[in-house]
Amino acid sequence: MAARPSPYLDSLNPAQREAVERLDGPVLMLAGAGTGKTKALTARIVHLLNTGRARPNEILAVTFTNKAAREMKTRVGQMLGETVEGMPWLGTFHAICVKLLRRHAELVELKSNFTILDTDDQLRLLKQLVAAEGIDDKRWPARMLSGIIDDWKNRALTPEKVPAADAGAYNHKGPKLYAAYQARLRELNAVDFGDLLLHMVTIFQTHGDVLEQYQRWFRYILVDEYQDTNVAQYLWLRLLAAGHRNICCVGDDDQSIYGWRGAEVGNILRFEKDFPGAHVVRLEQNYRSTPHILAAASGVIKGNQGRLGKELWTEAEDGQKVRLIGHWDGDEEARWVGEEIEALQRGTRGQDPVSLDAMAILVRASHQMRAFEDRFLTIGLPYRVIGGPRFYERMEIRDAMAYFRLVVSPDDDLAFERIVNTPKRGLGDKAQQTIQVAARANGVSLLDGARIAVDKGLIKGKGGAALRELAEGLARWSGKLRGPLRESGVDADRVIDDEDRAVRMEHGPAEITHMELAEIILDESGYTAMWQNDKTPEAPGRLENLKELVKALEGFENLQGFLEHVSLIMDNSTEDAGEKVSIMTLHAAKGLEFPAVFLPGWEDGLFPSQRSMDESGVKGLEEERRLAYVGITRAEELCTISFAANRRVFGQWQSSLPSRFIDELPEDHVEVLTPPGLYGGGYGAAGLGGASSGLEARAAEANVYNSPGWRRLQARAAERPVSQPKESRTTVIDLEAVSAYTVGERVFHQKFGYGAVVGIEGDKLEIDFEKAGVKKVVARFIMAADD
Ligand code: ATP
Ligand code: MG
Asked: Which annotated residues bind ATP (predicted)?
């Protein structure tokens, strides 16, 4: 077939071109960030089609996210410049496996219309099995089993293949329950996420004819982000590629960030062994970032051992150094980032105006997003959250806000409907109807209707009692509504600044604060407990968000003011068009690029995470470092790293140290900024600290730690801990400490010795100690075991 013109080849460098044009045999493109791996992979698909080497559906291309798949599809379409009949098999491993499994479901005793369970369903099912087995779910939570089974599936282990070494898993019942779970799924004609790949691998391994059919069918296989494939995905690919051996994988060992989910960076390092005669293409020219940004990224990743060690270069002009700035606390950081984004947008930082679409904030943990969202909503800066709902749209936040709304306005019927049976109070449709009728008959609000219904005995039993309790609670909480700063001499109309906070810390509020009231409402209504008792993987995150919500209240005079603020900003933020700043986690940012990137929260314990720091080996820390590398290399022209000296949790200060990664940034490529608030304005204060040792020290010195405000607060905080919550209604959960552990993990306690985590409850861990038996201990007193 005569080749059509190929303009897409002209925009490639020789190495990329080689990877694109060498269509036969295995090819590995192993190269650093921004070297055009994805671009070349996309061009390769186009080239296959353009040269007539393959029909669209003979090409199998795997991306890591659905978003990446969509982008690649669009680009292929654009590059071809004409419509092709059909499209390649282009999607994530899961998306492709669903399609295949529907065709061959009967081979694993399923029907082709099988359902795919989400994690909640999966857990519910496991709970039933655990209960049927007479296992104490408190001691051996089903969530632990679910983690173990996922891990087996990631390793492509069916119940029969679970190795003897894992026989002791989940109190020796793991393998048996795994088999029971798989059997139950079959009965239900259902699969979980891990099954999609596992079943396909099983089918390929046991039905040679089916495998052969696809080996013949997929003449060309392409895989992006190969460094993050797990064992099951790897086996699946290897089986499929064994026919034509036309497999092209691209990846970067320095960007392997899914080890915690079973990814094996070893897969990429083993490629040449798996596919003898593989052609390896190395790309070294980076087209994305400026030299300063590249140098900063290389400086950090150098700290990892056993890398392949790639050097990147670029023709781009030096541009601006990576900017580093320390802030007093997380809100201050968010405020600064907001101002900076607006300045960049207006073009008042000595550059051309930057579109909001060109800017992104990449956080280590999703709870960091709240401060930014709040700030941006306040100043009306449009933003989008990638990979999750926006903070105030989250279920738990809407629930909590509904409680607050009812306390402030007992007539808010929508709020009442939302929470009347959340948490479960045994008030089903019938009871709710009774309330509606009573309210309408008396011309009153639903809440009053409920009171009437209870008084008249129209709703009896448990539900009636619970409803009465709710109504009484709402009345009690409403009675506690006051403007807390009124008596403390602080002008409440003013924006609450650091000075005000200090005053509040010194005098303390006259009555309970609205933050305390919010905690009381969430506790006494049973809402917090609902999530504490929830063993789904999402529950800890939801509790974390509730904690963030209470933190958000701090900037307001009272509950009313806060609710007004949220309803106003929610209204403004509904329209979807127009430019927006992106906010996402570092994990979600893989493969993406933005002209300006903000990397906040570079503090030890947050980034790197506490968990990775507590681990005995360097594995966790190295994965965090790769995450830092991914973060910095997302930036094209401007990269700004920041940290806060303080993060506040329920009005209590938690001071933190700048991230150890900051000290790994090469000084020559970093400019230390001074936050304008502290010294009355001005940037470019590099060298301000005088004789300094290392960036970290200089940043710290130049900023918060040396400021009078910071010292004053430190002193005050030491003298007088603020609003210690009372034991009786503890919701202060040291989630930071708790989230460092997972069920099943081996830990050490000074007094009780070694043991395994069997449950997590609030800020306590339930641990089965080898010598002392099962005990509940506060997470802070636990260390990860060194073995
Ligand atoms: P990552 O490791 O972050 O996934 P990558 O290696 O996949 O990065 P790409 O996203 O493909 O890199 O490319 C990075 C940027 O460089 C893109 O904007 C791309 O368009 C551009 N680019 C890649 N190759 C070239 C080239 N030969 N000429 C000009 N620009 C290029
Ligand atoms: Mg890429």
From this structure: 31-38
* Centroid of ligand 1 to alpha carbon of 292 (angstroms): 18
- 460 in a known ligand binding site: no
Query: Annotated binding residue at 42?
Result: no
Structure-model confidence comparison of residues 609 and 350, the more confident one = 609
CA-closest residue to ligand 1 atom 2: 33
Pocket test for ligand 1, best of 16, 20, 39 (most atoms within 8 A of CB): 39
What are the residue ranges of CATH 3.40.50.300 in the chain? Answer: 22-98+199-281, 292-390+573-718
* Structure tokens, 394: 């989250």
Query: Comparing C-alpha atoms, which of 597, 572, 569, 570 is closest to residue 582?
Result: 597
Kindly report which listed range (226-235, 398-407, 778-787) carries the lowest average pLDDT score: 778-787
The pLDDT of residue 718 is 47
| CATH 1.10.10.160 holds for 115-188 | yes
The number of beta carbons lying within 10 Å of the beta carbon of residue 350 is 8
Q: What CA–CA distances, in Å, run from 461 to 360, 465, 513, 663?
A: 53, 6, 35, 63
Of 288, 298, 630, the residue with max ligand 1 atoms within 8 A of its CB, to mutate for a pocket test, comes to 288
With a Cβ cut-off of 6 Å, ligand 1 is lined by: 11-13, 16, 33-39, 252, 255, 287-288, 591, 593, 633
Q: Which of 643, 581, 34, 29 is nearest to 290 (CA)?
A: 34
* CATH architecture for residues 741-784: Roll (2.30)
Residue 36, annotated as binding a ligand: yes
Q: 22-98+199-281: which CATH topology?
A: Rossmann fold (3.40.50)
Q: Which two tokens stand for residue 212?
A: 């052969």
Which residues share a beta bridge with 755?
747, 769
Among protein residues, the one whose CA lies closest to atom 11 of ligand 1: 36
Could you tell me which CATH number the domain at 393-569 has?
1.10.486.10
Is residue 498 a contact partner of residue 717, using CB atoms and an 8 Å limit? no
Give the ligand 1 atom nearest the CA of 40: 11
Q: Give the separation between CA 183 and CA 752, rounded to whole angstroms.
A: 39
Task: Establish whether 32 is an annotated binding residue.
Answer: yes
- Averaged pLDDT score across all residues of the chain: 82
Q: What is the pLDDT of residue 13?
A: 96
Residue nearest to atom 13 of ligand 1 (CA): 36
Q: How far is the CA of 37 from the centre of ligand 2 (A)?
A: 5
Give distance in angstroms: CA of 586 to centre of ligand 1.
19
Just give the CATH number of 292-390+573-718.
Answer: 3.40.50.300
Catalytic positions, please?
A: 37-38, 224-225, 255, 634
Sorted by sequence, the CB contacts under 8 Å of residue 491 that are 6+ apart come out as none
pLDDT tens for each residue of 183-237? 999 988 888 889 999 999 999 999 999 999 999 999 999 999 999 999 999 999 9
pLDDT per residue as tens digits for the range 255-296: 999 887 788 888 888 898 999 999 999 999 999 999 999 999
Looking at the chain, the domain(s) classified CATH 1.10.10.160 span 115-188
Distance CA 408, CA 411 (A): 9
Query: Do the beta carbons of residue 237 and residue 221 sit within 8 Å?
Result: yes
The ranges of the chain annotated as CATH 1.10.486.10 are 393-569
| pTM, two decimal places | 0.69
Strand pairing category for 746-749 and 753-761 = antiparallel
The tokens for 663 are 């000290």
The residue whose CA has the least distance to atom 30 of ligand 1 is 287
How are strands ordered across the β-sheet holding 782-784?
773-778, 764-769, 753-761, 746-749, 782-784
Domain with CATH 2.30.30 in the chain: 741-784
578-587 pLDDT, tens digit per residue, is: 899 999 999 9
CA distance 308 to 253: 7
